[in-house]
Amino acid sequence: MPAILAKCGPWRQMKLPRPATVTDDTQMTLALARGLRTAMDRGLLGPLRMERPVREEFVNWYQSPDNNRAPGRTCLVACNLLKNEKRRWQEASQIGSKGCGANMRVAPVGLVRGLSDEQRAGAAQFQAALTHGHPTALAAADLTAHAIWLLTQGAEPMGLVGRLRSYAYENRHRYHSRWLGDLWTFSEDATPEAFIARGWDECLGALDDLRHAVRTASPETDPCLATGGGWIAEEALATGLLCFLLFVDEPVTALRRAACTSGDSDSIACLTGAFAGAYHGSDAWPTEWADRIEYQGDLMSLGALWDA
C-alpha cells in the first residue's frame, strides 16, 4: 500500500491514470464474456455449449501479445494445458488452486439475462474450474456471480451478506455434476458432496469475517486487515464486497478504496467495481472513464448487451 500511496497520492483522491490500461482481470473477464456471448448465440446455455467458446477465448488470451499484465500462475499453467484440444478440461484444471483468478472474471455470468439458478451457478463454477479446480474457488465464483445477479435485481446491499450466507448453506452439498463432471475425483475427497462442502465451508468463514467487518471496519483502514488480502478467491469476494458496502452510495470512492490496499488490489477493485456497477448501473462511473478505458469497444458492446 505505501507504494500505491507514493505513486497515486491519498486514496480518496486517486485518479484514473493515463493511459487507462487494464489488468489481466479485465482481460479474462472480457474473454469469458465473449465466450458466453458466443455460447448463448448458439442456443440454451449448458456445459457442452459453453466449453468450446470459453476454452478458446481463454487460450486466445493466453497466447495474446497483450497477455503481459503479470497474470497468475494458475491461469497460465491451466490455459497452456487447455491448448491441447484432446485434453479433457478436468485434466487441465489445477485442483489445488483457489486463487482469485477463479472469481475476478466471473461478473458476466451474474449479468447475463434469462439464466435459471442452475445455469448461473453451474456456469460460474464451470468457468472457474477450467483453471482453478479447488472447491473453494468454485464456491467463491458461484457466490460472486450470485451477488452480482442479486444486485442487478435491486437487492438491498446491507442485507446481501445474510442472503449469501443462506445461499451457501442451501448449496453446501450440491455438486453440479452436469457442469463439473468428474472433477471431484482429482481431489482426495471421498464423495462429490464432501468435495464441494469443503469449498462452501471456507466461503462461509470468509462471509462471517465480512459480516463482522461491515459493522466494525473503519473506511480509512486498509480493508485487507479485516477480510484478507484477496489473493485467494474467498478473500477476494469478501474484501471486494466490503469495499462496496463501506461506500454503497459512493461507487467511485468504493473503487478507490479497493484499489489502495495491501493485498491484490487490482482483483479486489475488479470485484468492487462489478458489485457497484451491478447495483448502480453504468451511471456509477464518470463518462470520461468510458471514453479513455482500454478495450472500450468490447466493454461498451458487452455492457449494452447485458445492461439491465
TrEMBL record:
Keywords recorded for this protein, A-Z: Magnesium, Metal-binding
Organism placement in taxonomy: Bacteria, Bacillati, Actinomycetota, Actinomycetes, Kitasatosporales
UniProt GO molecular function: metal ion binding
Binding-site positions, Mg(2+): 23-25, 264, 266-267
CC cofactor: Mg(2+)
Pfam family, one: ADP_ribosyl_GH
InterPro entries: ADP-ribosylglycohydrolase (IPR050792), Ribosyl_crysJ1 (IPR005502), Ribosyl_crysJ1_sf (IPR036705)
Cofactor info, note text: Binds 2 magnesium ions per subunit.
Organism, scientific name: Streptomyces albiflavescens
Name this polypeptide is given: Crystallin
